[in-house]
Design goal:
- 0% of the residues lie in helices and 44% in strands.
- It is built from no helices and 9 strands.
- The radius of gyration is 22 Å and the shape is globular.
- The protein binds copper (II) ion.
- The site of copper (II) ion (CU) has 5 residues, from loops.
């Protein structure tokens, strides 16, 4: 195993205060009671290709949800989530092989997921996520 290389050089400017003071760590609660762990956030992975959206699951409980878009296609694709016609969230055009994520606070109902590039939705890049 050669550990050659590494970042050499990068001489710091003399006298330059490079390091910002670290923010103080979260203060320990005086009672010593550890905070309850946050509830786990459900994830939905949408796999995109030409021309389909494949959802890792089609229903989630209401609340925070992480939507992931992974592009397994050859072209760029994006993700839009609408509920009753209004946009709840979106991810921009994503290159093949890339993964993007966004967290949404979703209410009970039906969300439409689709790619907004011309004709992509009509070719099949759409899906429905049921929340509640
Ligand atoms: Cu697309």
């Amino acid at each position: 195993v050669s550990s050659a290389g590494g970042s050499t050089g990068g001489t710091p400017a003399p006298g330059a205060p490079l390091a910002e003071p670290l923010a103080p760590a979260t203060p320990a609660p005086p009672g010593g009671t550890p905070p309850a762990p946050p509830p786990s956030v459900p994830h939905v992975l949408i796999t995109a290709d030409e021309w389909s959206f494949s959802l890792s699951r089609t229903s989630v409980p209401a609340g925070k949800v992480v939507l992931g878009l992974v592009n397994h296609g050859q072209d760029e694709h994006n993700l839009n989530a609408t509920s009753e016609g209004s946009l709840a969230g979106s991810l921009p055009n994503t290159d093949p092989g890339e993964l993007r994520q966004l967290t949404l606070d979703m209410h009970a109902g039906s969300y439409k997921l689709f790619c907004s590039l011309p004709e992509h939705e009509s070719r099949g890049m759409r899906g429905t996520l049921t929340v509640g």
